[in-house]
Design brief:
heterodimer; A: about 450 residues; mainly alpha; D-Maltodextrin-Binding Protein, domain 2; 3 domains; four-stranded mixed sheet; 19 helices; about 5% strand; B: about 350 residues; alpha/beta; Rossmann fold; Alpha-Beta Plaits; 2 domains; four-stranded antiparallel sheet; 13 helices; about 35% helix; disordered N terminus
């Protein structure tokens, strides 16, 4: 068994084509990626967008409270996790005239003023020479519109909720001192005024309060809204790493590289079985158990595949500078599972009788190229297509090893939870087991009719 | 060789009974029987497609078969009988080695399929390299070897573990004469060291040269089985006479008798152009077949004392001049021809 392992490792590692595809290919392609994507990650971020804000009476009014919150939130510096700066760099002025002047004299892209009704007016700078100006202005407008829409939706929900509570309180008889039941009070009514320090043990006092509420429901609603305003807009980070568009391409690249290492598995099994090669036939005649030879062959091909991917990973991580979320141990585990799945795919193809070694290599190349296509390796359009397919047919990820491998690294990078990563890892192992079972079945069913 | 040999009761190493192998409608082996005794160099001779390799693959359990039984060393053979496989060495028809491994690594790997002890294996590999004459080529990869040397490597990989039974499937195909001789000498040496040999070939000269017993195969059946002499005794041909005919004017020999005999010179069919003396030769008591190929008169005769003298007398009477005369014993091709009606070389 050891000799089979040793010599399988030796003869495959001396195959020049294998070394080119499994070892050199990911290194060369990742180097090209690093040159192609050098400005990509910077261009996708909108930071420190200059916005002039007219800080007049309307801005200080209650109607503009939401806008003030939004502006404060988006001008905060980024969190340590995402390492992204603030979205806007506000420049406060006292009048609209000052705002116009500042807009013209500085890099600011728009000025914001609140009208008498409390509605925000965003005035954009016009500069045909600046092609990205509209994009940046759109970002600011989108954020402000979103905040206002959120405010409107929250207000509607709060008002609706409070009115329903009051109605329920009225129906329960809470407004009658004789039948007042403290336990029947809805929470929002019960806490209508945080500063009233209402004693619910005192039924008479509570009833008086409720009578008051019943007379002026609008006041209750406004109070509830005022309570929600403070937490309406907050800057949060939805990922624990700085989102990097280019990272996904390296994940897809690792997916494709894994599929190319399937050649290693293919070669190992193709030269082990009697029906697929003359050297396999000779080995079958040996006095070593076929199961042991197969286990040793699979182990050798896995170790080689894993080693190739590990070299690629170290290069991408250290030389190219792709962070992989900094979870190296989990990444290495993902590489081990990926190489196992890729290797077993190759073994399965290697066990197909009646196809030459070159033909099997061709099958793997086709699978690798198509797999990489649906993993989004070939550019933005391809990445969008991959995302679209994954959204429409989520199962497609589980039949494409390249997509699954890319998703494994993706989930490790973007999600706070390790569950998506563990799920992807488990699916890779399932895939490996399925291919191994298929290989064993093909190897078992062979009757060497083509010798 | 054969150091672990265990004598079976009747000393039969290979016993194949009524083996039938079909490929859809084609019958590759048709109730094939074979019995090989210990110490023999057994030749399986037959044209391409006669079933030699199929028979070997069935014996080795590389092929399933439809009917029949295979017993090796007195025990039923099965794909998982690794104890039996350990006693067999196979040299396949094709070069079956790893192109990426060196000569020594290849021999060591295939030897390791039978021998796990590292030190013992080192000795065996050294002996195998020396046996096939690959000293100095240990670090070469097969691609760097000539065709003959590569064949020797192929043999070394099959015999390094010193098997009791060695099966060589056409090991001299596409090999230069020097390497071919070395291979044949090596096979005889292996046999002298105790190994039983099964040698398949469609080169009858090789089989005649080294095999102690021969089976002639045709269409999946063993059509004749015996020693070289026994096989030749099975047929009527005792000797083959080859006489070069020479005309007076230097023209093809058979034309002169035609002219002198007053036959129709303008006739163009072979039957009409055949000289009259041929009928007389065919009527000789020991003549089996007679015909003219070019300027050579070919006469196959039964065993007899005066065959050549009788034929030459007829030629003299017909006033036919002749040059070189050859008298050859029958070959295995003649045996095959007489039994099957077709040439072995077809």
């Amino acid at each position: 068994m050891w000799n089979t392992f040793k010599y399988t490792t030796l003869y495959i590692s001396r195959e020049r084509e294998i070394l080119i595809w499994a070892l050199a290919f990911p290194i060369i392609l990742s180097t090209l990626f690093s040159l192609m994507f050098s400005g990509m990650d910077e261009s996708v971020y909108a930071t420190d967008l200059g916005v002039v804000v007219v800080e007049d009476e309307a801005w200080e009014s209650d109607e503009a409270a939401v806008l003030r919150e939004v502006m404060d939130a988006i001008s905060e510096p980024g969190t340590a996790a995402d390492e992204v700066g603030s979205l806007v760099a506000p420049h406060y002025v006292e009048s609209e005239e000052d705002a116009r002047r500042t807009l013209a004299d500085t890099d600011a892209i728009a000025y914001l003023i609140v009208d008498e009704q409390g509605a925000p007016q965003l005035h954009m700078k016009l500069d045909p020479a600046d092609s990205s100006l509209t994009q940046r202005q759109t970002v600011v407008k989108t954020v402000l519109d979103g905040a206002l829409r959120t405010k409107a939706a929250v207000s509607d929900a709060v008002e609706s909720h409070v009115r329903a509570d009051v109605e329920q309180a009225a129906r329960s008889g809470a407004f009658s001192p004789e039948t007042f039941d403290v336990q029947a009070l809805p929470t929002s009514v019960e806490n209508w005024d945080q500063e009233a320090s209402l004693s619910l043990d005192d039924a008479s006092a509570a009833s008086d309060v409720l009578m008051y509420v019943g007379i002026d429901v609008e006041a209750l609603v406004e109070q509830a809204l005022a309570a929600t305003d403070a937490e309406l807009t907050e800057r949060v980070s939805i990922t624990h790493n700085k989102p990097m568009e280019s990272e996904r391409y390296y994940y897809a690249l690792l997916g494709m590289a894994t599929l190319f290492t399937a050649n290693i598995g293919m070669l190992g099994i193709n030269r082990m079985l009697a029906n697929t090669s003359s050297v396999g036939a000779r080995r079958t005649l040996g006095a070593a158990s076929r199961t042991r030879v197969m286990v040793a062959t699979c182990a050798a091909t896995w170790v080689l595949s894993f080693a190739c991917l590990l070299v690629a990973y170290v290069y991408i991580r250290c030389a190219i500078g792709v962070t992989f979320g900094g979870k190296d141990a989990a990444c290495v585990l993902a590489l081990a599972a990926s190489s196992l799945a890729g290797c077993m795919l190759g073994a399965f193809i290697g066990a197909i009788p009646g196809v030459s070694e070159g033909g099997k290599g061709g099958i793997i190349t086709v699978i690798a190229c198509f797999g990489a296509l649906f993993a989004g390796l070939y550019g933005q359009a391809c990445m969008s297509l991959a995302d679209h397919i994954a959204a429409v047919a989520p199962w497609s990820v589980y039949v494409n090893p390249a997509s699954l491998i890319a998703r494994t690294f993706y989930s490790l990078y973007y999600y706070d939870s390790m569950v998506p990563y563990a799920e992807s890892l488990a699916m890779l192992l399932v895939m490996a087991v399925v291919f191994l079972a298929g290989t064993a079945l093909l190897a078992r069913r062979q009757q060497h009719e083509h010798l | 060789m054969g150091e672990t040999a265990q004598r079976t009761p009747n000393d039969v190493v290979v016993e194949v009974s009524s083996l039938v192998k079909r490929y859809k409608e084609t019958i590759a082996l048709d109730h094939f029987n074979l019995s090989i005794r210990r110490g023999e160099v057994f030749g399986l001779l037959g044209p391409n497609g006669s079933g030699k390799t199929t028979a070997i693959n069935c014996i080795l359990q590389l092929l399933t078969y439809d009917k029949g039984a295979v017993r090796l060393f007195g025990e039923a053979m099965a794909p998982t009988r690794y104890d039996i496989k350990r006693r067999i060495g196979v040299v396949p028809q094709n070069l079956a080695v790893f192109e990426e491994l060196t000569v020594r690594e290849n021999i060591d790997y295939f030897c390791a399929l039978y021998v796990s002890d590292k030190h013992r294996r080192r000795e065996l590999v050294d002996e195998a390299i020396s046996f096939v004459g690959l000293e100095g080529y240990e670090r070469f990869r097969p691609k760097k070897l000539s065709g003959g040397l590569a064949r020797r490597l192929n043999i070394a990989c099959g015999i390094a573990h010193k098997p009791e039974l060695i099966i060589l499937d056409e090991p001299t195909v596409a090999v230069d004469p020097q390497s071919r001789n070395a291979i044949l000498e090596g096979i005889l040496r292996l046999n002298s060291e105790g190994s039983t040999i099964i040698y398949t070939s469609h080169y009858m000269e090789e089989v005649e040269e080294i095999c102690s017993r021969i089976m002639i195969m045709d269409k999946g059946r063993g059509v004749a089985n015996g020693t070289n002499a026994e096989l030749k005794a099975m047929i009527g041909t005792g000797e083959k006479l080859r006489i070069q005919l020479v005309g007076d004017t230097g023209a093809p020999a058979f034309v002169a008798p035609l002219v002198r005999g007053g036959a129709d010179v303008g006739a163009d069919s072979p039957a009409e152009m055949e000289p009259a003396f041929m009928a007389r030769i065919r009527r000789l008591p020991h003549t089996l077949r007679a015909n003219i190929e070019g300027d050579v008169l070919e006469v196959d005769c039964a065993v007899g004392a005066h065959n050549l003298a009788d034929v030459l007398a007829v030629l003299k009477e017909a006033d036919v001049a002749f040059g070189r005369i050859y008298a050859e014993p029958p070959t295995l091709n003649d045996v095959f021809l007489e039994i099957t009606g077709t040439e072995l070389r077809d």
